[in-house]
Structure formats: C-alpha cells, structure tokens
Amino acid sequence: MFQAIIDLFFPRVCCACLKALNDRVEMICLDCRHDLPVTNFHFTNDESVKKVLYGRTKIEHATALFRFEKKSNVQQLIHNLKYKNQEEIGAFLGNWLGAELQDIKDYKDIDLVIPVPLHRNKLKTRGYNQVAKFGKQIAKALHAEYRDDILLKVTTSRSQVHKKRLARWQNNTEQFTLTNPDPITGKHILIVDDLITTGATLESCASVLNLANNIKISIATMAIA
C-alpha cells in the first residue's frame, strides 16, 4: 500500500521511452526490452568492435550490448545515465551483459575490470562515473576484481556529443596515466565504457595499460555507434 502511494505521486517510468512501468518491471519496460537493438556480438563471434581498433592496439575480445543510433531508445538510455542522475541504468545494463558474458569461454579468464575514468573535475561535477556500476556488475558476474584506481585521466576534454566521427578522432586529446603496473601485470583486463565510436578513448586507455608487462586486454561497452 505504501509503495502504491509513492507510485501515485512519483510514478516509475521506463528509462528509454518514459512510459509508466508495470509493478514487477524494473528500469526498462517490456516493449523497449524487446525492441532494443542487441548486437549479440559475444554469441556470434562478431568482431565489429575489434575492427574499430584494428591496427591500432591489440585486443583479445570485444563486445557491445547494443547498437547506437541517434534519436533512439539506446541514446535516451545513455543520456539519462550520464546527464539525468540515473546511475542505476549502468547497474541494470551491467547485470544484463554480465549474465551473458559469464557463460562465454572468451571472458571466463578475465582477472580485472577497469572502467574508462573521468577526469576528477568532471567526476566532481557529475558526481559519479557513468560506467562504474556497469563495470562493477560485470566484474561480479565474471568473478573478477573491479579496480578504478589503476587508470586515471589527467586531462580534461570538452563534450564530443555534437561532433562528427572524424572530428572526434582528430580532436581527441585525452591522456591517461597508470598509477601502478604491479596489480595488472600478467592479467587479462576488461576495459568497460558506455559507447565506442572512433575507438580513440579506448585506444588511449589500452596504450597506457600496455605499459605493464604481459597483459591481455578485452573490451565491453554498452553500445557501438
């Protein structure tokens, strides 16, 4: 009864289409779940994500949960996650992808899950890293360690939301630093991010992590453009 009263004044809505949710449905309505453009890359051995980074950095395995298109429900989900304080979307998507990856051989030997970091100024402004809970839930599903203190971002960058693909790549000046190579030496690392477009950010992260010895790097993102 108490929950019904709360729902009356603060109705729960789908994070994608903003329609009211049924009592037993969390975060995303059943219609949107059915219509979301899942890639199934990790089930079909599709290498679309790896091809984005081909010839730039070595990647063991790579996947994305959704395909991203402008003015789509996937864009709405990521927008709400990043700019509307709906951090739990990240946990929901992490549970979704983690449940799928945990039964796939390629991801069973993941040792560490590391999120693409935010600069401390942006983290202070936003209050959270939008991929933190996504990464934590995937780490939990894979029985891996989650570490957000290994890779740090040391330069700020302006939002690239309105930039075209080539401009994003040409203007990417993001720089990261490795705080301590010892915890990742000899490990298989899964880097997680919200969206891969040109791959410039993930390439920068992988380049820095490769300063450690004898590591393997894989990638998992919420979506691929």
Automatic annotation (TrEMBL):
Chain ranges of the Phosphoribosyltransferase domain: 135-221
Regions crossing the membrane: none
Q: Could you confirm whether the keyword Glycosyltransferase appears in this record?
A: yes
Q: Name one GO molecular function term.
A: glycosyltransferase activity
Keyword Transferase listed? The answer is yes
Query: What SUPFAM superfamilies does the entry give?
Result: PRTase-like
Which keywords does UniProt give here? Glycosyltransferase, Transferase
Assigned protein family? Belongs to the ComF/GntX family.
Question: How is this protein named in the record?
Answer: Amidophosphoribosyltransferase
Query: What organism is this sequence from?
Result: Pseudotamlana carrageenivorans
